[in-house]
Every structure is written in structure tokens, then in C-alpha cells.
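User: Hey, my collaborator sent me this sequence without any context and asked if I could get a structure. I don't really work with proteins. Can you help?
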Amino acid sequence: MRERSHRTNSSEGIDPPLRRIVLAWIETACLFAVLYVGLPLGGRLADDALRVVPLADPVRWLGIGPFLLGASVLGWSLAAFARHGGTPNPVAPPTSLVTSGPFARIRNPIIVSHFFGLLGASLLVGSISAAVLVFLLGLPAQALVRHEERVLEARFGDAFRVYRRAVPRWIPRRPRRHS
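Assistant: No problem. I've predicted the 3D structure and written it out in C-alpha cell form, which is a compact way to encode the shape of the chain:
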């Protein structure tokens, strides 16, 4: 009888936990692509249907700053998740509480970066409807964050409670200087 490796699934040729992480990253990338393409373009379609005039070019160019800010903080946040052995996808979460990188400044840098990135993308395509939708998405985002925080508290206990007391949810504090 042939022995099977306990680490790999011979039919797949990949370590099952690694396979789950890879698939979780692919799902995350697909979700982000749908979000960053669908929301701005959907907003433009809504603007056209509602006969809303696109934003003027100077206003559109203002979207570059928030878009780049959102993209850079999102990349920094995703790198922090990867360093902790997981993804932002609940299918393959990090193995430990992520409190480094942007998570040392705010508890929800991914959502905040999406806000800025999507607002910037909405401005760049000139869509008022998409920009309004970005703000309206704050309501379900708030509900999602409350749920995630209950899950994190159940999973990490006191470590999460200490982190929650020390780090603000949405708006970063000025770093403290140690003398």
C-alpha cells in the first residue's frame, strides 16, 4: 500500500491549508476587482439614467489623492495579514491578532482604505452617484465591523479587548512620542 503524505493531498498536489489560503486570496482579489470596477461604472450608469452631469475635470482629478492613499494603505494592510499567515477573507483568517502596520494606528484600515480608494475612483470617473454610494456603504460597513469585532473578541479574548481599548476604530490618533 502506498503511503500518502500527511502534508499534501495527492490529487491536488498542494498542501490543503495553503490551498485554502490561495483560494481565499483569489476570492479577495475578485471581490476587490468587482468593487473597484463595478461601483464607479455602476455610478456612471446611474448618473446617465438620472441625467446627472458628470463632475468637471478639475474635480475629477482630485480623486487621484484619495485613490492613491486608499490603494497604498490597502496594500500595507494586506501585507500585514499575509505576514500573519492569513487573508482578510474569513475562510482563511490570520493565525494571530494583527496589530502591526496600519492596524497599530486604526482597527479597520482595510475598510478605511476602501472608503478612500472608492471615493477617489468615483471622482476619477466623474460620478456623483458612485461618490454618494461610497458614503452610503458606511452603514453596512459599520454593521460588518461590529460583527467582526465580536468574532475577534471570542477568538482572541483579552488580547483583542486590550487592542480595542488602545486603538481607535476609524480615525487614527497622532502617534505618541516616547521621551
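In plain terms: The chain has one domain: 16-166. You can pass these C-alpha cells on to your collaborator as they are.
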